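Page 42, continued from yesterday. The earlier attempt failed because a stray header line got pasted into the input along with the sequence. Redoing it now with the clean sequence only.
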Amino acid sequence: MLSKLWALARDNWKLTFSLSIAFIIGCVLVALLAAWRDGDMVLCSLLGILIGWPAGILLAPYEEEQKKFGKWSKSLAGLLAGLSLGKLDTAFKLASQSTPHSLFRMVSMAFSWLMLSAITVFVVRTYSDSVEPE
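This time it went through. Structure tokens are written below.
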């Protein structure tokens, strides 16, 4: 298993670079969680990861998966984009609050983990296919 991962990393610089950056960002987010020592932040982070993982799968489906949920993923992406844009004013209001455990921090942490996990899953599913198995 490790030899396959090493071969994949050696032969595919895009995957290696992307996963290295994702690891560094993940370490920064974990350091923030450790510094804040807030259970609500950890819960929001886990929620972000659990939403981001399937989002990454929907963004980069394998061929057999693409047939199953091609139209469904487009509808879901449109719905999520619309909801996100509709709540921008609320995000700006929360950003102006300065309480240490504000809702803005929790939403930001959840969104950060969501994006990190979605992008990581997308990159792995997209670029790991380019290396031929031995």
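Notes: The mean pLDDT is 80.
Reminder to self: strip header lines before submitting.
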